[in-house]
Design a protein that fits this description.
Blueprint lengths: L3 E6 L2 E9 L5 E3 L4 H5 L19 E4 L4 E4 L2 E2 H7 L2 H10 L5 H13 L7 H6 L7 H15 L10 H25 L13 H10 L10 H13 L7 H10 L5 H13 L6 H15 L4 H8 L20 H16 L5 H15 L1 H5 L7 H10 L7 H22 L33 H4 L1
Helix pairs in contact: 3-9, 3-18, 4-7, 6-7, 6-11, 7-8, 7-18, 8-9, 9-14, 9-18, 10-11, 10-18, 11-18, 12-15, 12-17, 14-17
This protein binds acetyl coenzyme *A.
Acetyl coenzyme *A binds next to loops.
Length: 439
Protein backbone atom coordinates (compact mmCIF):
# COMPACT_ATOMS: atom_id res chain seq x y z
CA UNK A 1 0.00 0.00 0.00
CA UNK A 2 1.10 3.59 -0.65
CA UNK A 3 1.93 5.30 2.61
CA UNK A 4 1.49 8.76 1.18
CA UNK A 5 -0.66 10.61 -1.30
CA UNK A 6 0.67 13.25 -3.66
CA UNK A 7 -1.16 16.50 -4.12
CA UNK A 8 -0.29 18.92 -6.87
CA UNK A 9 -1.20 22.52 -6.19
CA UNK A 10 -0.01 25.69 -7.85
CA UNK A 11 2.87 23.86 -9.49
CA UNK A 12 4.14 22.26 -6.29
CA UNK A 13 3.85 18.65 -5.12
CA UNK A 14 2.91 17.96 -1.52
CA UNK A 15 3.11 14.59 0.19
CA UNK A 16 0.28 13.67 2.55
CA UNK A 17 0.58 10.66 4.87
CA UNK A 18 -1.92 7.81 4.52
CA UNK A 19 -3.40 6.43 7.73
CA UNK A 20 -4.84 2.92 7.80
CA UNK A 21 -7.29 1.60 10.38
CA UNK A 22 -7.27 -1.90 11.85
CA UNK A 23 -10.00 -3.01 9.42
CA UNK A 24 -8.19 -1.59 6.39
CA UNK A 25 -10.03 1.75 6.01
CA UNK A 26 -7.69 4.33 4.57
CA UNK A 27 -7.51 8.06 5.11
CA UNK A 28 -5.36 10.88 3.78
CA UNK A 29 -4.03 12.79 6.76
CA UNK A 30 -4.55 16.48 6.00
CA UNK A 31 -3.60 17.75 9.47
CA UNK A 32 -0.82 19.95 8.06
CA UNK A 33 -2.54 20.84 4.78
CA UNK A 34 -3.28 24.47 5.56
CA UNK A 35 0.04 25.25 7.18
CA UNK A 36 1.87 23.73 4.20
CA UNK A 37 -0.35 24.75 1.28
CA UNK A 38 -2.66 27.52 2.48
CA UNK A 39 -5.66 25.40 1.39
CA UNK A 40 -8.29 23.71 3.53
CA UNK A 41 -10.61 20.82 2.63
CA UNK A 42 -14.33 21.39 2.08
CA UNK A 43 -16.65 18.46 2.79
CA UNK A 44 -20.37 19.21 3.05
CA UNK A 45 -21.95 17.14 5.79
CA UNK A 46 -18.51 15.61 6.58
CA UNK A 47 -19.24 12.56 4.37
CA UNK A 48 -15.53 12.10 3.61
CA UNK A 49 -14.05 13.40 6.83
CA UNK A 50 -12.64 11.22 9.58
CA UNK A 51 -12.90 13.39 12.68
CA UNK A 52 -10.99 11.06 15.00
CA UNK A 53 -9.33 7.70 15.46
CA UNK A 54 -11.56 5.49 17.59
CA UNK A 55 -11.40 1.98 19.06
CA UNK A 56 -15.05 1.69 20.03
CA UNK A 57 -17.29 0.70 17.12
CA UNK A 58 -16.61 -0.59 13.62
CA UNK A 59 -19.09 -0.26 10.76
CA UNK A 60 -18.71 -1.50 7.21
CA UNK A 61 -21.64 0.21 5.54
CA UNK A 62 -21.18 -1.53 2.19
CA UNK A 63 -21.41 -4.98 3.75
CA UNK A 64 -23.83 -4.14 6.56
CA UNK A 65 -21.42 -4.98 9.39
CA UNK A 66 -21.56 -3.49 12.89
CA UNK A 67 -19.27 -4.49 15.76
CA UNK A 68 -18.90 -3.11 19.26
CA UNK A 69 -15.27 -3.43 20.38
CA UNK A 70 -14.82 -6.04 17.64
CA UNK A 71 -17.82 -8.20 18.60
CA UNK A 72 -20.51 -8.57 15.89
CA UNK A 73 -23.83 -6.97 16.80
CA UNK A 74 -25.63 -10.25 16.02
CA UNK A 75 -23.67 -12.07 18.77
CA UNK A 76 -24.22 -9.26 21.24
CA UNK A 77 -27.95 -9.14 20.47
CA UNK A 78 -28.28 -12.87 21.00
CA UNK A 79 -26.11 -13.31 24.07
CA UNK A 80 -25.68 -10.07 25.99
CA UNK A 81 -27.73 -7.60 27.97
CA UNK A 82 -27.81 -3.83 27.79
CA UNK A 83 -25.88 -3.41 31.05
CA UNK A 84 -23.13 -5.82 30.01
CA UNK A 85 -22.96 -4.14 26.57
CA UNK A 86 -22.68 -0.74 28.24
CA UNK A 87 -19.67 -1.99 30.20
CA UNK A 88 -18.13 -3.44 27.02
CA UNK A 89 -18.56 -0.20 25.10
CA UNK A 90 -17.37 2.10 27.86
CA UNK A 91 -14.51 0.08 29.32
CA UNK A 92 -13.39 -1.71 26.14
CA UNK A 93 -13.90 -5.37 27.05
CA UNK A 94 -16.49 -7.77 28.37
CA UNK A 95 -16.63 -7.69 32.18
CA UNK A 96 -15.95 -10.76 34.29
CA UNK A 97 -18.63 -11.80 36.78
CA UNK A 98 -17.28 -9.63 39.59
CA UNK A 99 -16.89 -6.58 37.36
CA UNK A 100 -20.40 -6.96 35.97
CA UNK A 101 -21.85 -7.26 39.46
CA UNK A 102 -19.85 -4.24 40.60
CA UNK A 103 -21.11 -2.22 37.63
CA UNK A 104 -24.74 -3.30 38.16
CA UNK A 105 -24.50 -2.49 41.88
CA UNK A 106 -23.12 0.95 41.07
CA UNK A 107 -26.03 1.58 38.69
CA UNK A 108 -28.47 0.57 41.42
CA UNK A 109 -26.69 2.72 44.00
CA UNK A 110 -27.13 5.76 41.74
CA UNK A 111 -30.60 5.12 40.37
CA UNK A 112 -32.31 7.88 42.34
CA UNK A 113 -32.06 11.46 41.20
CA UNK A 114 -31.56 14.12 43.87
CA UNK A 115 -34.94 14.78 45.49
CA UNK A 116 -34.69 18.51 44.69
CA UNK A 117 -34.55 17.70 41.00
CA UNK A 118 -38.20 16.72 41.18
CA UNK A 119 -39.07 20.42 41.41
CA UNK A 120 -37.44 21.03 38.03
CA UNK A 121 -40.06 18.81 36.40
CA UNK A 122 -42.78 21.12 37.72
CA UNK A 123 -41.52 23.97 35.55
CA UNK A 124 -42.21 22.29 32.22
CA UNK A 125 -45.55 22.73 30.48
CA UNK A 126 -47.53 19.51 30.01
CA UNK A 127 -46.93 19.84 26.27
CA UNK A 128 -43.11 19.79 26.60
CA UNK A 129 -41.47 17.13 24.46
CA UNK A 130 -39.72 14.53 26.68
CA UNK A 131 -36.49 15.04 24.69
CA UNK A 132 -36.46 18.70 25.75
CA UNK A 133 -37.00 17.66 29.37
CA UNK A 134 -34.38 14.93 29.09
CA UNK A 135 -31.60 17.18 27.82
CA UNK A 136 -32.40 19.91 30.35
CA UNK A 137 -32.55 17.44 33.24
CA UNK A 138 -29.34 15.63 32.29
CA UNK A 139 -27.56 18.96 32.33
CA UNK A 140 -29.27 19.84 35.63
CA UNK A 141 -28.20 16.53 37.17
CA UNK A 142 -24.59 17.57 36.54
CA UNK A 143 -25.21 20.37 39.05
CA UNK A 144 -26.03 17.78 41.71
CA UNK A 145 -22.99 15.59 40.97
CA UNK A 146 -20.01 16.34 43.15
CA UNK A 147 -16.46 16.79 41.92
CA UNK A 148 -17.11 16.57 38.18
CA UNK A 149 -14.19 14.86 36.50
CA UNK A 150 -12.99 14.78 32.93
CA UNK A 151 -10.39 12.10 33.73
CA UNK A 152 -12.05 8.98 32.35
CA UNK A 153 -9.86 6.67 34.45
CA UNK A 154 -10.68 8.15 37.86
CA UNK A 155 -12.97 6.36 40.30
CA UNK A 156 -15.05 9.54 40.48
CA UNK A 157 -15.61 9.30 36.73
CA UNK A 158 -16.90 5.73 37.19
CA UNK A 159 -19.47 7.12 39.59
CA UNK A 160 -20.48 9.79 37.06
CA UNK A 161 -20.85 7.10 34.41
CA UNK A 162 -23.12 5.10 36.71
CA UNK A 163 -25.12 8.21 37.61
CA UNK A 164 -25.67 9.09 34.00
CA UNK A 165 -26.60 5.63 32.72
CA UNK A 166 -28.84 4.90 35.68
CA UNK A 167 -30.44 8.32 36.12
CA UNK A 168 -31.18 8.97 32.46
CA UNK A 169 -33.72 6.16 32.80
CA UNK A 170 -35.17 7.63 35.99
CA UNK A 171 -35.40 11.11 34.44
CA UNK A 172 -37.01 9.68 31.29
CA UNK A 173 -39.64 7.81 33.29
CA UNK A 174 -40.35 10.82 35.55
CA UNK A 175 -40.78 13.10 32.53
CA UNK A 176 -43.32 10.71 31.04
CA UNK A 177 -45.23 10.45 34.32
CA UNK A 178 -45.25 14.22 34.65
CA UNK A 179 -46.42 14.76 31.05
CA UNK A 180 -49.20 12.22 31.49
CA UNK A 181 -50.32 13.74 34.80
CA UNK A 182 -49.48 10.67 36.85
CA UNK A 183 -47.56 10.35 40.14
CA UNK A 184 -43.85 9.65 39.97
CA UNK A 185 -42.84 6.05 40.62
CA UNK A 186 -39.47 5.58 42.29
CA UNK A 187 -37.00 2.91 41.11
CA UNK A 188 -36.75 -0.40 42.96
CA UNK A 189 -33.31 -1.67 43.92
CA UNK A 190 -34.38 -5.28 43.39
CA UNK A 191 -35.17 -4.77 39.68
CA UNK A 192 -32.64 -5.01 36.90
CA UNK A 193 -32.04 -2.07 34.58
CA UNK A 194 -34.73 -2.47 31.94
CA UNK A 195 -37.35 -3.99 34.25
CA UNK A 196 -36.83 -1.04 36.57
CA UNK A 197 -37.46 1.41 33.74
CA UNK A 198 -40.70 -0.33 32.77
CA UNK A 199 -41.70 -0.30 36.44
CA UNK A 200 -41.11 3.47 36.70
CA UNK A 201 -43.02 4.05 33.46
CA UNK A 202 -46.05 1.89 34.05
CA UNK A 203 -46.54 0.95 37.72
CA UNK A 204 -49.06 2.76 39.86
CA UNK A 205 -48.78 3.64 43.56
CA UNK A 206 -51.49 1.05 44.26
CA UNK A 207 -50.41 -1.64 41.78
CA UNK A 208 -47.08 -2.77 40.32
CA UNK A 209 -46.84 -3.22 36.57
CA UNK A 210 -46.63 -6.89 35.62
CA UNK A 211 -43.18 -7.45 34.16
CA UNK A 212 -43.40 -9.97 31.32
CA UNK A 213 -39.97 -11.45 30.44
CA UNK A 214 -40.57 -11.10 26.67
CA UNK A 215 -41.39 -7.41 27.11
CA UNK A 216 -38.33 -6.75 29.28
CA UNK A 217 -36.11 -8.62 26.83
CA UNK A 218 -37.51 -6.76 23.80
CA UNK A 219 -36.85 -3.36 25.36
CA UNK A 220 -33.41 -4.46 26.58
CA UNK A 221 -32.64 -5.50 22.99
CA UNK A 222 -33.70 -2.10 21.71
CA UNK A 223 -31.41 -0.36 24.22
CA UNK A 224 -28.54 -2.68 23.32
CA UNK A 225 -28.92 -2.24 19.56
CA UNK A 226 -28.74 1.54 19.98
CA UNK A 227 -25.77 1.52 22.35
CA UNK A 228 -23.23 2.96 19.92
CA UNK A 229 -22.87 3.74 16.23
CA UNK A 230 -19.53 5.50 15.74
CA UNK A 231 -19.42 9.13 14.57
CA UNK A 232 -23.12 9.82 13.93
CA UNK A 233 -24.60 13.30 14.40
CA UNK A 234 -25.23 13.03 18.16
CA UNK A 235 -21.97 11.24 19.03
CA UNK A 236 -19.96 13.69 16.98
CA UNK A 237 -21.81 16.45 18.87
CA UNK A 238 -20.89 14.89 22.22
CA UNK A 239 -17.25 14.71 21.11
CA UNK A 240 -17.38 18.29 19.87
CA UNK A 241 -18.66 19.55 23.23
CA UNK A 242 -16.28 17.27 25.17
CA UNK A 243 -13.35 18.61 23.15
CA UNK A 244 -13.80 21.94 24.94
CA UNK A 245 -13.41 20.00 28.24
CA UNK A 246 -17.06 20.52 29.17
CA UNK A 247 -18.24 17.98 31.74
CA UNK A 248 -19.81 14.61 30.94
CA UNK A 249 -23.37 15.69 31.79
CA UNK A 250 -23.22 18.82 29.61
CA UNK A 251 -21.73 16.80 26.76
CA UNK A 252 -24.38 14.07 27.03
CA UNK A 253 -27.16 16.69 27.18
CA UNK A 254 -25.91 18.08 23.86
CA UNK A 255 -26.08 14.57 22.40
CA UNK A 256 -29.76 14.36 23.35
CA UNK A 257 -30.47 17.59 21.45
CA UNK A 258 -28.65 16.38 18.34
CA UNK A 259 -30.44 13.04 18.50
CA UNK A 260 -33.88 14.63 18.66
CA UNK A 261 -34.12 15.65 14.98
CA UNK A 262 -36.20 13.52 12.57
CA UNK A 263 -33.22 12.85 10.31
CA UNK A 264 -31.47 11.17 13.25
CA UNK A 265 -33.01 9.54 16.35
CA UNK A 266 -36.32 11.36 15.88
CA UNK A 267 -36.88 9.12 12.85
CA UNK A 268 -38.35 6.36 15.05
CA UNK A 269 -41.24 8.66 15.99
CA UNK A 270 -41.48 9.96 12.41
CA UNK A 271 -41.74 6.39 11.03
CA UNK A 272 -44.76 5.57 13.14
CA UNK A 273 -46.38 8.92 12.31
CA UNK A 274 -45.80 8.13 8.63
CA UNK A 275 -47.28 4.63 8.98
CA UNK A 276 -50.29 6.05 10.83
CA UNK A 277 -50.82 8.62 8.08
CA UNK A 278 -50.66 5.91 5.41
CA UNK A 279 -53.05 3.72 7.40
CA UNK A 280 -55.57 6.51 7.95
CA UNK A 281 -55.52 7.52 4.29
CA UNK A 282 -56.33 3.95 3.23
CA UNK A 283 -53.20 3.86 1.04
CA UNK A 284 -51.48 0.46 0.80
CA UNK A 285 -48.15 2.33 0.78
CA UNK A 286 -47.80 2.71 -2.99
CA UNK A 287 -48.96 6.35 -3.06
CA UNK A 288 -46.54 7.18 -0.28
CA UNK A 289 -43.67 5.50 -2.12
CA UNK A 290 -44.50 7.63 -5.18
CA UNK A 291 -44.49 10.76 -3.00
CA UNK A 292 -41.16 9.79 -1.38
CA UNK A 293 -39.60 9.51 -4.85
CA UNK A 294 -40.84 12.97 -5.78
CA UNK A 295 -38.58 15.60 -4.18
CA UNK A 296 -41.28 18.27 -4.68
CA UNK A 297 -43.63 16.39 -2.32
CA UNK A 298 -41.39 17.12 0.67
CA UNK A 299 -41.92 13.51 1.83
CA UNK A 300 -39.27 10.95 2.59
CA UNK A 301 -39.64 7.30 3.37
CA UNK A 302 -38.75 7.65 7.04
CA UNK A 303 -36.66 4.83 8.47
CA UNK A 304 -35.00 4.34 5.09
CA UNK A 305 -31.54 5.40 4.03
CA UNK A 306 -28.35 5.94 5.95
CA UNK A 307 -25.19 7.95 5.48
CA UNK A 308 -22.98 4.91 6.11
CA UNK A 309 -25.07 1.83 5.30
CA UNK A 310 -25.42 1.20 1.61
CA UNK A 311 -26.80 -2.21 2.48
CA UNK A 312 -29.35 -3.51 5.01
CA UNK A 313 -28.65 -1.98 8.44
CA UNK A 314 -27.81 -5.09 10.54
CA UNK A 315 -29.75 -3.64 13.47
CA UNK A 316 -32.87 -3.36 11.30
CA UNK A 317 -32.62 -7.07 10.46
CA UNK A 318 -32.46 -8.00 14.15
CA UNK A 319 -35.27 -5.61 15.09
CA UNK A 320 -37.52 -6.84 12.29
CA UNK A 321 -37.13 -10.42 13.54
CA UNK A 322 -37.64 -9.35 17.17
CA UNK A 323 -40.75 -7.42 16.13
CA UNK A 324 -42.29 -10.48 14.48
CA UNK A 325 -41.46 -12.66 17.50
CA UNK A 326 -42.76 -10.19 20.08
CA UNK A 327 -46.04 -9.53 18.31
CA UNK A 328 -46.66 -13.24 17.91
CA UNK A 329 -45.81 -14.03 21.59
CA UNK A 330 -48.02 -11.17 22.74
CA UNK A 331 -50.78 -12.17 20.29
CA UNK A 332 -50.84 -8.62 18.97
CA UNK A 333 -51.53 -7.83 15.37
CA UNK A 334 -50.61 -4.35 14.29
CA UNK A 335 -51.79 -3.05 10.89
CA UNK A 336 -48.78 -0.71 10.92
CA UNK A 337 -46.45 -3.73 10.84
CA UNK A 338 -48.23 -5.01 7.72
CA UNK A 339 -47.92 -1.59 6.09
CA UNK A 340 -44.23 -1.37 7.06
CA UNK A 341 -43.51 -4.76 5.50
CA UNK A 342 -45.36 -3.82 2.31
CA UNK A 343 -43.49 -0.52 2.13
CA UNK A 344 -40.18 -2.29 2.60
CA UNK A 345 -40.91 -4.86 -0.11
CA UNK A 346 -42.10 -2.17 -2.52
CA UNK A 347 -39.17 0.14 -1.83
CA UNK A 348 -36.60 -2.62 -2.25
CA UNK A 349 -38.05 -3.30 -5.74
CA UNK A 350 -38.22 0.36 -6.77
CA UNK A 351 -35.32 1.59 -8.97
CA UNK A 352 -35.32 4.94 -7.07
CA UNK A 353 -34.40 3.23 -3.78
CA UNK A 354 -32.25 0.49 -5.36
CA UNK A 355 -30.09 2.95 -7.33
CA UNK A 356 -29.54 5.12 -4.24
CA UNK A 357 -28.91 2.07 -2.05
CA UNK A 358 -31.62 3.04 0.39
CA UNK A 359 -32.43 0.23 2.84
CA UNK A 360 -34.40 0.12 6.09
CA UNK A 361 -32.42 1.54 9.00
CA UNK A 362 -32.70 0.82 12.73
CA UNK A 363 -35.70 3.11 13.10
CA UNK A 364 -37.92 1.40 10.56
CA UNK A 365 -39.21 -1.38 12.83
CA UNK A 366 -38.18 -0.23 16.33
CA UNK A 367 -41.25 1.99 16.69
CA UNK A 368 -43.59 -0.92 16.05
CA UNK A 369 -41.98 -2.89 18.89
CA UNK A 370 -42.26 0.13 21.16
CA UNK A 371 -45.94 0.52 20.28
CA UNK A 372 -46.51 -3.12 21.16
CA UNK A 373 -44.79 -2.54 24.52
CA UNK A 374 -47.20 0.33 25.20
CA UNK A 375 -44.51 3.01 25.04
CA UNK A 376 -46.05 6.32 23.98
CA UNK A 377 -44.96 7.78 20.67
CA UNK A 378 -43.26 10.88 22.06
CA UNK A 379 -41.04 8.65 24.23
CA UNK A 380 -39.57 6.71 21.29
CA UNK A 381 -36.58 8.99 20.79
CA UNK A 382 -36.04 9.09 24.56
CA UNK A 383 -35.68 5.29 24.47
CA UNK A 384 -33.03 5.74 21.77
CA UNK A 385 -31.22 8.29 23.98
CA UNK A 386 -31.21 5.92 26.97
CA UNK A 387 -29.74 3.22 24.74
CA UNK A 388 -27.13 5.54 23.20
CA UNK A 389 -25.76 6.76 26.54
CA UNK A 390 -22.93 4.15 26.72
CA UNK A 391 -21.73 5.17 23.27
CA UNK A 392 -21.69 8.86 24.17
CA UNK A 393 -19.86 8.11 27.41
CA UNK A 394 -17.29 5.88 25.69
CA UNK A 395 -16.62 8.58 23.11
CA UNK A 396 -16.34 11.20 25.86
CA UNK A 397 -13.90 8.96 27.69
CA UNK A 398 -11.90 8.34 24.53
CA UNK A 399 -11.49 11.99 23.63
CA UNK A 400 -10.68 13.10 27.16
CA UNK A 401 -8.09 10.31 27.52
CA UNK A 402 -6.29 11.34 24.33
CA UNK A 403 -3.28 13.43 25.32
CA UNK A 404 -3.09 14.79 21.76
CA UNK A 405 -6.79 15.71 21.54
CA UNK A 406 -7.42 19.30 20.50
CA UNK A 407 -10.55 21.36 20.67
CA UNK A 408 -12.80 20.60 17.66
CA UNK A 409 -12.84 23.68 15.52
CA UNK A 410 -13.65 23.24 11.81
CA UNK A 411 -12.86 25.99 9.33
CA UNK A 412 -15.12 27.43 6.67
CA UNK A 413 -15.00 29.02 3.26
CA UNK A 414 -16.41 32.47 3.79
CA UNK A 415 -18.82 33.54 1.03
CA UNK A 416 -20.26 36.71 2.63
CA UNK A 417 -19.60 40.34 1.64
CA UNK A 418 -16.03 41.54 1.39
CA UNK A 419 -14.95 44.63 3.37
CA UNK A 420 -17.89 46.86 4.14
CA UNK A 421 -18.27 49.92 6.37
CA UNK A 422 -20.57 50.86 9.23
CA UNK A 423 -23.41 53.10 8.01
CA UNK A 424 -24.97 55.54 10.53
CA UNK A 425 -28.67 54.86 11.18
CA UNK A 426 -29.95 58.02 9.41
CA UNK A 427 -28.12 57.03 6.21
CA UNK A 428 -29.61 53.51 6.04
CA UNK A 429 -32.35 52.91 3.46
CA UNK A 430 -35.82 53.21 5.05
CA UNK A 431 -34.57 55.10 8.18
CA UNK A 432 -36.05 58.53 9.10
CA UNK A 433 -33.59 61.35 8.32
CA UNK A 434 -33.21 62.73 11.87
CA UNK A 435 -33.97 62.06 15.54
CA UNK A 436 -36.89 64.54 15.42
CA UNK A 437 -38.42 62.77 12.42
CA UNK A 438 -38.02 59.48 14.29
CA UNK A 439 -40.18 61.12 17.00
N1 LIG B 1 -36.66 8.72 1.20
C1 LIG B 1 -36.53 9.20 -0.07
N2 LIG B 1 -35.35 9.58 -0.61
C2 LIG B 1 -34.25 9.47 0.15
C3 LIG B 1 -34.30 8.98 1.46
C4 LIG B 1 -35.57 8.59 1.99
N3 LIG B 1 -35.67 8.12 3.23
N4 LIG B 1 -33.07 8.99 2.00
C5 LIG B 1 -32.26 9.47 1.05
N5 LIG B 1 -32.97 9.75 -0.07
C6 LIG B 1 -32.44 10.23 -1.36
C7 LIG B 1 -31.98 11.67 -1.25
O1 LIG B 1 -33.04 12.56 -1.59
C8 LIG B 1 -30.87 11.71 -2.27
O2 LIG B 1 -31.43 11.72 -3.55
P1 LIG B 1 -30.67 12.46 -4.79
O3 LIG B 1 -29.36 11.74 -4.95
O4 LIG B 1 -31.61 12.29 -5.94
O5 LIG B 1 -30.51 13.89 -4.36
C9 LIG B 1 -30.19 10.35 -2.10
O6 LIG B 1 -31.23 9.48 -1.61
C10 LIG B 1 -29.02 10.35 -1.11
O7 LIG B 1 -29.52 10.80 0.15
P2 LIG B 1 -28.84 11.91 1.06
O8 LIG B 1 -29.92 12.72 1.68
O9 LIG B 1 -27.79 12.62 0.29
O10 LIG B 1 -28.17 10.99 2.13
P3 LIG B 1 -27.56 11.47 3.51
O11 LIG B 1 -26.47 10.52 3.80
O12 LIG B 1 -27.24 12.91 3.48
O13 LIG B 1 -28.78 11.30 4.55
C11 LIG B 1 -30.36 10.23 5.93
C12 LIG B 1 -28.98 10.14 5.27
C13 LIG B 1 -30.47 11.56 6.69
C14 LIG B 1 -30.49 9.12 6.94
C15 LIG B 1 -31.44 10.14 4.84
O14 LIG B 1 -31.35 8.88 4.19
C16 LIG B 1 -32.83 10.33 5.40
O15 LIG B 1 -33.29 11.48 5.53
N6 LIG B 1 -33.57 9.22 5.77
C17 LIG B 1 -34.87 9.35 6.38
C18 LIG B 1 -34.74 9.74 7.86
C19 LIG B 1 -34.22 8.57 8.69
O16 LIG B 1 -34.68 7.45 8.59
N7 LIG B 1 -33.24 8.88 9.56
C20 LIG B 1 -32.66 7.91 10.48
C21 LIG B 1 -31.26 7.55 10.08
S1 LIG B 1 -30.60 6.30 11.15
C22 LIG B 1 -30.26 7.13 12.57
O17 LIG B 1 -29.92 8.28 12.61
C23 LIG B 1 -30.41 6.40 13.77
Amino acid sequence: MNNEAKLELDGKTYRLPIVEGSEGEKAIDVSNLRSETGYITLDDGYSNTGSCRSQITFIDGEQGILRYRGIPIEEIAEKSTFVETAYLIIYGRLPNRTELKGFSDLLTAHQNIHEDMKYHFEGFPATAHPMAILSAMINASGCFASNLQTDGNSSQFEVQVAQLISQVRTIAAFSYRKASGRPIIYPKASYKYTANFLHMLFSNPYEDYELKPEVVRALDLIFLLHADHEQNCSTATVRMVASSQANLFASAASGVCALWGPLHGGANQAVVEMLEEIHKSGDDGSKFIDAAKDKASGKKLMGFGHRIYKNYDPRAKIIKQACDNLLSVMHVSDPLLDIAKKLEEAALREPYFVERKLYPNVDFYSGIIMRALGIPLEMFTVIFAIGRMPGWIANYREITADAKARIYRPRQIYIGPTINHYVPMHQRPGSPKSQQEAG
